Amino acid sequence: MKLFAPLLLLAATVQASILTLQSPKFTISSKNGDQLRSEPISMTQKPSPPLQLSPADTLKLSFQIVDKDNGKAVQPQQVFLRFYDEESGEEGIQPLRVASTGKVKFELNMSKPPLSLPPTSTAPLQVTLLLGSSSHAPLKVQLFDLYVPASYPVVPHPDEASFHLLPEIQHTFRPDPKLPPRFISAVFAGAVVFGPWVVFLVLLFTISPRIPRLFSPNVLPFTLSLGAFEYLLYQYWVSLKLGDVLLYGAVLGLVTLFTGRRALSSIAEKRMGAKP
């Protein structure tokens, strides 16, 4: 624990280092260079009355950043001025350049206002100084309130209306189609499924074809392979996927090819043997 005591003491010292401003001052000059107002800035209280600039006035701000404990100059990594219009909610951030001696100078010329100055209204801009350093605690100072000429209304962009909130779309759907009675559906389903079989049986008994070799040992495997194809198509309609059907169909195709050749060969042999 004694070994870490110096490190803890050093960390506490660094954490306690505080920045402050030395000789903060503002000056307002007219277009001709006449000094209209010049006052030091308090760290705890804003100047009264608030600062006011005309379209041709210039505001100059100067101060030095030092360590509050030892008074040595500090060059923070981040130094910004924040302009905030509380009425409109607009704000602008102006980075400031810091010399190695910690001195900062800023000039706001209203004839050529910087881009960081937000659109202004009749309300004053709250000017705040923001300091950030890796070796010191951050510092935020409310410098003063500043009245500047109100900016012109912002010209709306031609496509601005495209980004506005549109009214909610109310969808209107057609009512669900009514299903026919189950009896009617069953009748038509039966007609589709069993109708071809009825026609087949009627034609079969009407024509009465002669099929003496249909169930012979050489022809029966071919007949069964054709029936297997029909069953495969039925399974595809019920549960199988296309890839499975192609795989099983390829296997059945080979079986049907060999059984068909054998059936045709046996029929041809019997026909050749029946000739005188």
Automatic annotation (TrEMBL):
Pathway listed: Protein modification; protein glycosylation
Gene Ontology cellular component annotations, sorted alphabetically: oligosaccharyltransferase complex
Matches recorded under Pfam families: Ribophorin_II_3rd, Ribophorin_II_C
Segments forming domain Ribophorin II third: 35-134
Keyword Transferase carried by entry: yes
Subcellular location: Endoplasmic reticulum membrane
Listed GO MF terms: transferase activity
TM ranges: 183-207, 219-239, 245-264
Composition-biased stretches (Polar residues): 29-46
Principal location class: endoplasmic reticulum
InterPro entries assigned: Ribophorin_II_3rd, Ribophorin_II_C, Swp1
Region (Disordered): 29-53
Gene Ontology biological-process annotations: protein N-linked glycosylation
Function: Subunit of the oligosaccharyl transferase (OST) complex that catalyzes the initial transfer of a defined glycan (Glc(3)Man(9)GlcNAc(2) in eukaryotes) from the lipid carrier dolichol-pyrophosphate to an asparagine residue within an Asn-X-Ser/Thr consensus motif in nascent polypeptide chains, the first step in protein N-glycosylation. N-glycosylation occurs cotranslationally and the complex associates with the Sec61 complex at the channel-forming translocon complex that mediates protein translocation across the endoplasmic reticulum (ER). All subunits are required for a maximal enzyme activity.
The name this protein goes by in its record: Ribophorin II
Organism of origin: Dendrothele bispora (strain CBS 962.96)
